[in-house]
């Protein structure tokens, strides 16, 4: 979580904006079922009649209401008599008979007064319905109702009023709506027009809410994508910067395959959870809390259904979380292994084919592929059961609401629209838990991925620069001194180099030779601080290399590795790594010295020759010559040639050494070589055997004093060539 907090902090405003839009979207969507309830209860069931008591009644209707009301003054005092043609324009338009007839118009009432009037009116109309009996009173006129009331005895009227007072408000209110429709009809109102107007009005509000909700959802998507993409970009950038600061020892600790996985697949998992988290982590609680509040407003008696749904869903998600979380850690490790096998197989394809081991490598890859597939199948199968179970629970909860709510509707304890709205709110609550379930699926893997990313970012490189560093004052003079240098890899018990001491002066060439594994490459890799010495010290111009910044140290060194490595692009872009703004003349001068002018020359526009990834489209000798040219164009005071002539033929080797002697005569040159002919003219030759110096001197001196050197020389050269 700290990792996500750190990398989403620059996008705090976007995150806040997304949360605000999510809040708005949730509020809008929580209002929709409420309007749907009104659409059903009022627009369909009540024919568009919103009020509990009529807005306006004729004199006959008022007389009828007061006759059956327990307290007539409760109704009469809330209305005011209006003379013919004196009503408001809106009332005259809706009730045309008011132009010629007087009527009772309802006063502006407070909430409590409206409720009291609605109760009194509903009970009065219910009492009237009892007196009328089984007749369809919704199709009767007021005159017919009065006639039926006149025919009832005083005892029957009192019994009807008593029965009405004991009847539920839901039933009395439903009966009252039917009588209100009759009263409106007597005043010239058109029921269909009123109903359609209400439906269009409420439907328009619902459409507007849906549109605003959709726009908010789009905004959340845009903000979330920006935050997610920016977070992923920043993490990948920091991983790359961190890895480029690693020494070879740090990279060996992780392995190249896992570093690639962590900077791609793992970052993608983190990026995905950021995208989903902004939406689901914020929306799920809002849906859950808001849906619960709105559902309880519709019916407190059915709240136990919400509790049952929440308990079942939480239990299901906890079980799923326990089952799949451990598997995600295994899956990421198996992804590393699959990448490693694939990388080794693709890189070493020529060797594999040469030894006819295609089947072996295929089986090796298949095994790694099967391992990750089996774990992935387990996770996917487990996750695949989640949605069907949740859908089954959702269906069962829906049936339960319909069953229980249906009884409430039948008993007039709950309007049918409220039951439908309650169902929608429960669905929203369930959806919030399904969102949480989705996060439970993605979060464990993202947590594992974030931990692996954090492990890389938190790794302190073995090679560190001192805060109080020293400087060479610009370009080094080129003096290199090894003082009693010993080195071991990591936690190895034995040193691969022991007590190495020598000094290379500017203008000198120091060569290193010895059997395979004697430590030659390791020795020179200590100078640019690819590794740090275990004991002793290496000095450049009298300054310990550990006291210099890596940038200054390596800017003074031209390094040509044993394996010539080229990058995809063209010849010019590869040479520009040595000097960023080198001119074509400088590049061709370096190419001539490196003996590459035969395949790269100005006439065939050689600098634009395409180079494939890893330099696969050029030979080993051409790679080495381009690598040498790349170092030469830098023109450093110190050159390191790590067996950089091994792929060259003897003629090219000789020509190259002659050209290098002229180009690097003022520089310090350190050469690792296997050929004696390459180093015969070196100022110093250091012979290594099992990490120790067994000979040190010139070619002629070593022939006399060092048996190991003499054996190497005699195995390569004739007596005449040795002389």
Short description:
The chain contains 27 helices and 15 strands.
- Summarize the amount of helix as a percent range: 55-70%
Structural class: alpha/beta
- The strand order across the widest sheet is 9-12-13-6-14-15
Count of DSSP H/I helices = 27
Poorly predicted sequence stretches spanning 5 or more consecutive residues: none
* Shape designation: rod-shaped
The overall pLDDT, averaged over residues, is: 84
Beta-strand residue percentage:
5-15%
Main sheet record? 6 strands, mixed
Strand tally is 15
Give the terminus-to-terminus CA distance. 71 Å
- Evaluate the radius of gyration: 45 Å
Describe this structure in words.
The chain has 27 helices and 15 strands. The protein is 63% helix and 10% strand. The strands form 4 sheets. A 6-stranded mixed sheet has the order 9-12-13-6-14-15.
Give the secondary structure arrangement, pairings included.
Elements lengths: L1 H7 L3 H34 L10 E2 L1 H10 L3 H5 L2 E4 L6 H6 L8 E4 L4 H22 L9 H9 L3 H13 L2 H18 L4 H54 L3 H7 L1 H43 L4 H45 L1 H6 L3 H27 L1 H25 L5 H43 L21 E8 L9 E8 L4 E6 L5 H6 L9 E6 L2 E2 L5 H6 L1 E4 L8 E2 H5 L8 H10 L16 E2 L8 H13 L5 E5 L7 H14 L4 E5 L3 H4 L4 E6 L2 E6 L1 H7 L1 H10 L2 H4 L1
Parallel strand pairs: 6-13, 6-14, 9-12, 12-13
Antiparallel strand pairs: 1-3, 2-3, 4-5, 4-7, 7-8, 10-11, 14-15
Helix pairs in contact: 2-10, 2-12, 2-17, 3-6, 6-8, 6-9, 10-12, 12-13, 12-17, 13-15, 13-16, 13-17, 16-17, 21-22, 25-26
Features of the shown structure:
single chain; 723 residues; alpha/beta; six-stranded mixed beta sheet; four-stranded antiparallel beta sheet; 27 helices; 15 strands; 63% helix; rod-shaped
């Amino acid at each position: 979580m700290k990792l996500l907090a750190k990398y989403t902090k620059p996008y705090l405003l976007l995150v806040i904006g997304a949360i605000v839009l999510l809040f708005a979207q949730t509020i809008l969507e929580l209002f929709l079922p409420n309007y749907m309830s009104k659409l059903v209860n009022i627009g369909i069931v009540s024919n568009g009649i919103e009020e509990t008591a009529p807005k306006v009644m004729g004199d006959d209707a008022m007389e009828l209401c007061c006759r059956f009301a327990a307290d007539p003054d409760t109704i009469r005092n809330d209305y005011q008599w209006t003379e013919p043609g004196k009503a408001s324009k809106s009332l005259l338009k809706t009730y045309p008979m008011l132009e010629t007839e007087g009527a009772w118009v309802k006063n502006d009432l407070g909430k409590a007064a409206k409720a009291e009037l609605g109760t009194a009116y509903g009970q009065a109309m219910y009492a009237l319905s009892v007196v009328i009996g089984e007749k369809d009173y919704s199709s009767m006129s007021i005159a017919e109702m009065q006639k039926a009331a006149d025919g009832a005895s005083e005892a029957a009227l009192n019994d009807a009023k008593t029965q009405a007072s004991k009847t539920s408000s839901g039933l009395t209110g439903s009966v009252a709506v039917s009588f209100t429709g009759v009263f409106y009809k007597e005043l010239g109102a058109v029921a269909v027009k009123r109903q359609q107007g209400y439906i269009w009005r409420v439907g328009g509000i619902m459409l507007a809410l849906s549109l605003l909700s959709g726009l908010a959802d789009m905004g959340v998507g845009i903000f979330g994508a920006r935050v997610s993409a920016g977070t992923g970009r920043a993490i990948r950038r920091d991983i790359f910067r961190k890895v480029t600061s690693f020494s070879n020892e740090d990279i060996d600790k992780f392995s190249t395959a896992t570093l690639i996985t962590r900077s791609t697949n793992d970052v993608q998992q983190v990026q995905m959870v950021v995208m989903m988290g902004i939406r689901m982590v914020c929306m799920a609680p809002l849906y859950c809390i808001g849906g619960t509040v709105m559902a309880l407003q519709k019916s407190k008696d059915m709240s136990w259904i919400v509790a049952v749904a929440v308990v079942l869903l939480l239990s299901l998600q906890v079980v799923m979380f326990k089952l799949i979380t451990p598997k995600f850690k295994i899956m990421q490790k198996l992804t590393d292994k699959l990448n490693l096998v694939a990388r080794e197989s693709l890189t070493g394809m020529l060797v594999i084919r040469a030894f006819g081991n295609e089947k072996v490598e295929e089986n090796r890859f298949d095994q790694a592929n099967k391992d990750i597939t089996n774990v992935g199948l387990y996770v996917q199968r487990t996750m695949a059961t989640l949605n069907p179970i949740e859908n089954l629970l959702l269906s069962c909860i829906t049936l339960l609401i319909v069953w229980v709510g249906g009884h409430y509707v039948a008993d007039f304890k709950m309007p049918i629209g409220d039951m439908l709205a309650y169902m929608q709110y429960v669905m929203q609550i369930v959806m919030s838990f399904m969102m949480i379930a989705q996060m439970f699926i993605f979060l464990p893997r993202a947590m594992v991925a974030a931990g692996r990313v954090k492990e890389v970012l938190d790794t302190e490189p073995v090679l560190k620069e001192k805060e109080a560093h020293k400087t060479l004052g610009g370009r080094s003079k080129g003096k290199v001194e090894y003082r009693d240098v010993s080195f071991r890899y990591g936690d190895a018990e034995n040193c691969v180099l022991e007590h190495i001491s020598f000094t290379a002066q500017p203008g000198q060439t120091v060569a290193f030779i010895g059997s395979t594994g004697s430590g030659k490459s390791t020795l020179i890799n200590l100078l640019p601080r690819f590794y740090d010495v275990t004991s002793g010290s290496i000095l450049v111009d009298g300054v310990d290399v550990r006291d210099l910044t890596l940038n200054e140290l390596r800017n003074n060194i031209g390094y040509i590795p044993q394996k010539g490595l080229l990058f995809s692009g063209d010849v010019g872009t590869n040479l520009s790594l040595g000097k960023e703004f080198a001119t074509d003349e400088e590049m061709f001068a370096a190419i001539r010295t490196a003996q590459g002018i035969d395949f790269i020359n100005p006439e065939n526009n050689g600098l634009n020759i395409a180079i494939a990834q890893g330099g696969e489209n050029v030979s080993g000798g051409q790679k080495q010559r381009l690598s040498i040219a790349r170092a030469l164009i830098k023109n450093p005071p110190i050159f390191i040639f790590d067996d950089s002539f091994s792929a060259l033929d003897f003629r090219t080797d000789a020509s190259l050494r002659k050209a290098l002697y002229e180009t690097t005569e003022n520089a310090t040159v350190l050469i690792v070589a296997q050929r004696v002919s390459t180093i015969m003219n070196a100022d110093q030759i250091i012979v290594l055997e099992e990490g120790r110096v067994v000979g040190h001197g010139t070619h002629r001196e070593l022939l006399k004093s060092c048996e190991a050197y003499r054996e190497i020389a005699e195995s390569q050269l004739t007596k005449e060539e040795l002389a």
